[in-house]
Write a structure and sequence with these properties.
The protein has one domain: Multidrug-efflux Transporter 1 Regulator Bmrr, Chain A (Alpha-Beta Barrel). Helix content is about 20%, strand content about 35%. It contains two helices and six strands. A six-stranded antiparallel β-barrel has the order 1-3-2-5-6-4. It is globular, with a radius of gyration of 16 Å.
Length: about 160
C-alpha cells in the first residue's frame, strides 16, 4: 500500500442508510444484500444522480471497545439536501457534518485494514490533529473491484476537531 495523500475537509451531506449489527465478518457476508437493499430503495425513489451520488460505509463503534456482536455498521448513499424521504423500517436518513482528515487511497480489498491502521496509528495519533466524537467512514470514489487483488480509489474519513 502506498502512503496516501491526506487532506483536511469539511463534510456536510445527507445520506440514506441501512444499518447492520454484528461482527465485521458477518457484515462482509451480508454487505451485498445491504447494498442491494439501499440501491433498490434509491432507484425506486429516483435518488441516484449519476456523477454525484456517493456510496459510503459508516463505522459507528470502536471494535477495540465494543463486542463484535454489537458493532454497528451502515451502508449509505448521499442524497440531495432538498429531497423529502419517508423513512421505512430499514432505510433511515441522517446528516454527516464536520471536519475530517481524509486519506485518499488506491487499495485492494486486502489492504483496507492496513489503510485504517495507517489513518489512526500513523496519521492521527502521531500527528497534531485531535479526534472528534463522531464516526469514521469510507467513501468509495470508484466502484470496489470484483477481484480481491484489483485496486480501487477509496477515501477514509476520520472525524477531527
Amino acid at each position: 500500500m502506498e502512503k496516501p495523500n491526506i487532506t483536511i475537509e469539511y463534510f456536510n451531506t445527507r445520506v440514506i442508510y441501512v444499518r447492520f449489527k454484528g461482527s465485521y465478518v458477518a457484515f462482509r457476508k451480508n454487505g451485498r444484500k445491504l447494498f442491494n437493499q439501499l440501491f433498490s430503495f434509491a432507484t425506486e425513489h429516483n435518488l441516484v444522480i449519476p456523477g454525484e451520488t456517493k456510496v459510503l460505509t459508516i463505522y459507528h463503534d470502536n471494535p477495540f471497545i465494543t463486542d463484535a456482536e454489537n458493532l454497528r455498521t451502515s451502508v449509505a448513499m448521499t442524497i440531495p439536501n432538498d429531497v423529502e424521504i419517508n423513512e421505512i423500517e430499514e432505510i433511515n436518513v441522517m446528516t454527516i457534518e464536520g471536519k475530517f482528515g481524509v486519506g485518499h487511497f488506491e487499495i485492494s480489498a486486502m489492504e483496507y485494514e492496513a489503510a485504517w491502521q495507517y489513518m489512526y496509528h500513523e496519521w492521527l495519533y502521531k500527528g497534531s490533529e485531535k479526534p472528534r466524537d463522531s464516526f469514521p467512514f469510507e467513501l468509495y470514489v470508484s466502484e470496489p473491484p470484483k477481484r480481491l487483488k484489483d485496486k480501487s480509489f477509496t477515501d477514509i474519513f476520520i472525524p477531527i476537531e
